[in-house]
Automatic annotation (TrEMBL):
This is UPF0310 protein V6590_04155. Belongs to the UPF0310 family. NCBIfam families: PRK02268.1-2. Residues 7-138 form the EVE domain. Pfam families: EVE. Gene3D superfamilies: ph1033 like domains. It comes from Gemmobacter denitrificans.
Length: 157
C-alpha cells in the first residue's frame, strides 16, 4: 500500500551544507545515501538540524537551519568527483531564520524528557510529529505560510 499521509523529517547536516542545499534546491541525507531519501515523498515536511556551523569540525551551533517541503520527482545521484556520488532530492525551501534548539527542547515530543537529546539526531535522519514540525516552523519561518501553498512556493506562482 503506497504511503499517502504527509510525514515530517529532520535531516542532520552542518549549517554550511544546509545553506548549499537551500541554494541548490536539494537535500542530501546520511552522507549521500539513497535509502533515507527514498522514504520521503513529495509534500513531506523536511527540516535541517545543524549541530555545527560547518563540516567537518566547525563551531557548535545546535540550531534548525532550513525548513521546506519535499518537491516532485524521485531521488537522483550526482558525481561530485573523487568517487563521491551522493543521492539528492528536490526540496522547496521556505524563507526562514535559524532557530536554536535549546528553547525548544522541552516543547518537542522528539526531545522532551531526553537527557541526551542530541542522540536523536546522530543517525542523520529521523521522523518527527506534525506538532513538532509546526513548533519548529513557528520558531523559524520569517513570513506566515499560506496553507493553500506548499512551503517554498510563492502564492503567485
Amino acid at each position: 500500500m503506497p504511503h499517502t499521509e504527509t510525514r515530517y523529517w529532520v535531516v542532520t547536516a552542518s549549517a554550511d551544507h544546509a545553506a548549499r542545499g537551500q541554494e541548490w534546491g536539494i537535500v542530501q541525507a546520511c552522507h549521500g545515501k539513497a535509502a533515507p531519501l527514498r522514504r520521503m515523498r513529495p509534500g513531506d515536511g523536511v527540516v535541517i538540524y545543524s549541530p555545527r556551523d560547518r563540516f567537518p569540525a566547525g563551531q557548535p551551533l545546535q540550531a534548525f537551519t532550513a525548513i521546506g517541503r519535499v518537491g516532485e520527482g524521485e531521488p537522483w545521484q550526482v558525481d561530485m568527483g573523487g568517487g563521491f556520488t551522493p543521492w539528492r532530492r528536490h526540496v522547496l525551501w521556505q524563507p526562514a531564520r535559524p532557530a536554536a534548539i535549546q528553547p525548544l527542547l522541552g516543547q518537542l515530543e522528539l526531545t522532551r524528557w531526553q537527557s541526551h537529546w542530541g542522540m536523536v539526531f546522530r543517525y542523520g535522519l529521523c521522523t518527527v510529529t506534525r506538532a513538532d514540525f509546526i513548533r519548529i516552523a513557528q520558531a523559524m519561518v520569517v513570513q506566515p505560510m499560506d496553507r493553500a501553498q506548499p512551503m517554498g512556493q510563492a502564492a503567485d506562482q
